[in-house]
Write a structure and sequence with these properties.
Number of helices: 12
CATH class of the largest domain: Alpha Beta
CATH topology of the largest domain: TIM Barrel
Order of helices and strands: EEEHEHEHEHHEHEHEHEHHEHEEHE
CATH architecture of the largest domain: Alpha-Beta Barrel
Radius of gyration: 18 Å
Strand order of the largest sheet: 3-4-5-6-7-8-9-10
Structural class: alpha/beta
Strand content: 15-25%
CATH superfamily of the largest domain: NADP-dependent oxidoreductase domain
Helix content: 25-40%
Number of strands: 14
């Protein structure tokens, strides 16, 4: 496994970051014990970094990972915008993962310099907790070029977590080249960079090799890359690729043919909650029910968590 320092944080992370969203209740719905099997396999390959978030509901899974590897690097994220919310989400994280600190804690899904300003009270609390040792690095995650541009004016953000892939799928307001320009500028300023959705949330599975070649080729400005994994085969394949090895050809072909999609069940009541929650504008109401535009959907499952009828799932 290849390792890099995450910006100037002093935190050394594996090139492959294990994204835990896909094993949680909004996608594969693995039990914590089942998730632990995947984490342990990844650790055997040298992975030392896990990504989670307050909304993923995977803290029980990550707690198992911490039990197996107490020094595993953990990144979590929160939508909190004020001090009370920030305090609650950090406490929930620490209690959930079973540690008295978290390595990286981020403002979740920021859109621009204006939303950074709107979450300033929460950010200041996280910075305060960093000084007290409960957080090692703070920052934000985003699908927006505009947010990366805004982050360049915030040196207190240690880590940035942008969406970037070869085809630009999921970038809400620009192109791959535009996002990459901001990533390079941020990295030059010392921000740690975690790349998300290199396979476009699964849309680019058929182009997996080219997509991984692209993201692994950004070694000069991307410190680590988060990929969600749901099976031993995926763990073995990705760990081989990220270690510069050749994966098993049969396993690679099996994974190449695996496609995912957003399923909206027939009992959708058309309340519109999912439409409002989708930052990629991939959902709309049509004839009294939600409809997805697969070309815009990033398969993030954030719509699923707000559906009161539990009609949405990535399959």
């Amino acid at each position: 496994m290849i390792y890099h320092e995450l910006g100037r944080t002093g935190i050394t992370v594996s090139k492959l970051c294990f994204g835990s969203l896909t094993m949680g209740p909004f996608q594969r719905d693995l039990t914590p014990a089942q998730g632990a099997v995947l984490f342990e396999r990844a650790f055997e390959h040298g992975v030392n970094f896990i990504d989670t978030a307050h909304i993923y509901e995977t803290y029980p899974h990550v707690r198992e990972a911490v039990r197996i590897k107490p020094d595993v690097i953990v990144c979590s994220k929160s939508y909190a915008y004020d001090r009370a919310g920030a305090e609650e989400t950090l406490r929930t994280c620490l209690e959930g993962i079973g540690r008295d600190y978290v390595d990286v804690f981020l403002l979740h899904e920021q859109e621009s310099i204006h939303t950074i300003r709107g979450h300033r009270e929460a950010l200041e609390y996280y910075i305060e907790m960093k000084k007290k040792g409960y957080i090692r690095a703070v920052g934000l995650s985003t699908h927006y070029v505009a947010c990366m541009d805004g982050a360049l004016r915030h040196p207190e953000l240690d880590v940035l977590f942008p969406l970037i892939n070869k085809n630009g799928i999921g970038i809400a307001d620009g192109t791959t080249d535009q996002m990459l320009e901001k990533i390079r500028a941020a990295h030059e300023l010392g921000h740690g960079i975690i790349a998300m959705k290199p396979l476009g949330g699964g849309h680019l599975i058929a182009e997996r090799e080219a997509c991984l070649d692209f993201i692994l080729g950004l070694d000069d400005c991307v410190d680590t890359i988060a990929i969600g994994m749901q099976s031993i085969a995926e763990v073995d394949y990705n760990c081989a690729r990220f270690s510069g090895e050749t994966p098993d050809p049969a396993a690679a072909e099996e994974l190449r043919q695996t496609k995912r999609r957003l399923l909206i069940q027939d009992w959708c009541e058309g309340c519109g909650a999912c439409v409002a929650a989708c930052h990629n504008h991939a959902l709309r109401l049509e004839n009294g029910r939600a409809v997805v535009d697969p070309d815009k959907c990033a398969l993030c499952s954030y719509c699923a968590r707000v559906c009161p009828q539990f009609t949405i799932k990535v399959i």
